[in-house]
């Protein structure tokens, strides 16, 4: 796929972090970019800076996602690129005992479902609706109509203590990559997934420097946190290389997460 001013893209979670870096990288190549996010102030600022459009979207809502695609397509036409970076996390042991009074509690099922709805169902919702739109496009070289990149995490393969829900949500994203690629193969739409390691996103930037230094030291090489631009670079490679399909790729400096 040619990444240039002839195409449009939607980036979920595009107001900050990995999504913002990807939106900026696409826009730098001339792509017309729509940002889906709940952070309206940041999203509007990024969209203005890259000449794109911001759509306030909650990925857990059919109505909100439909409205976002309608606004994006009214501004830029049918997207041929979707990059899904919207997501969140939480941490709690499946069951645990209080050190103070010995009381026992378990992971809230409400909290578990909340995370699954955002990271897994929300991702699939955007993928399914975008792919349906891509089916209306005329096929290009190799019969290609579109390309999609999803975001999982290394926690999909080596989740730490307290990450049962997060790992399940990201493992689900990995697990649906190949079936979706097979679902869409006859329509010329590709899909791949990136599994980021420890990245220096806004969430991480709020951590104490000592914590960040320890995390960086745990990465085999290079001994640092990942940069969002490195995620964006891999996303663009997946979009451009038309033989890249149905793959789940770790981007993590060779880290394998310890139990805690």
From TrEMBL:
Domain of life: Bacteria
Protein keywords: Oxidoreductase
Keyword Ion transport included in the entry's annotation: no
Pfam families linked to this entry: adh_short
Record keyword Oxidoreductase present: yes
Family statement: Belongs to the short-chain dehydrogenases/reductases (SDR) family.
PANTHER family cross-referenced by the UniProt entry: 17-BETA-HYDROXYSTEROID DEHYDROGENASE 14-RELATED (PTHR43658:SF8), SHORT-CHAIN DEHYDROGENASE/REDUCTASE (PTHR43658)
Descriptive protein name: SDR family NAD(P)-dependent oxidoreductase
Organism name: Sphingomonas aliaeris
């Amino acid at each position: 796929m040619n990444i240039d001013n002839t195409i449009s893209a939607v980036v979920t979670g595009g107001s900050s972090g990995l999504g913002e870096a990807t939106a900026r990288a696409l826009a730098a190549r001339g792509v017309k970019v729509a940002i889906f996010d709940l952070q309206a102030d940041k999203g509007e600022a990024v969209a203005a800076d890259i000449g794109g459009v911001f759509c306030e979207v909650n990925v857990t809502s059919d109505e909100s996602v439909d409205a976002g695609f309608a606004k994006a397509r009214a501004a830029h036409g049918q997207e041929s690129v979707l990059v899904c970076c919207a997501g969140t996390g939480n941490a709690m042991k499946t069951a645990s005992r209080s050190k103070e009074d010995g009381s026992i509690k378990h992971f809230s099922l409400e909290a578990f479902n909340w995370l699954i709805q955002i990271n897994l169902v929300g991702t699939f919702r955007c993928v399914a609706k975008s792919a349906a739109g891509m089916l209306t496009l005329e096929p290009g070289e190799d019969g290609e109509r579109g390309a999609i990149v999803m975001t999982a995490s290394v926690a999909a393969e080596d989740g730490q203590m307290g990450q049962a829900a997060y790992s399940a949500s990201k493992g689900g994203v990995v697990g649906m990559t190949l079936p979706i690629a097979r679902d869409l193969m006859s329509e010329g739409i590709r899909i791949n997934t990136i599994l980021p390691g420890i990245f220096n996103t806004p969430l991480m930037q709020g951590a104490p420097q000592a914590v960040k230094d320890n995390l960086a030291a745990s990465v085999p090489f290079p001994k640092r946190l990942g940069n969002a631009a490195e995620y964006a670079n891999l996303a663009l490679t997946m979009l451009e290389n038309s033989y890249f399909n149905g793959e789940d790729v770790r981007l993590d400096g060779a880290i394998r997460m310890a139990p805690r």
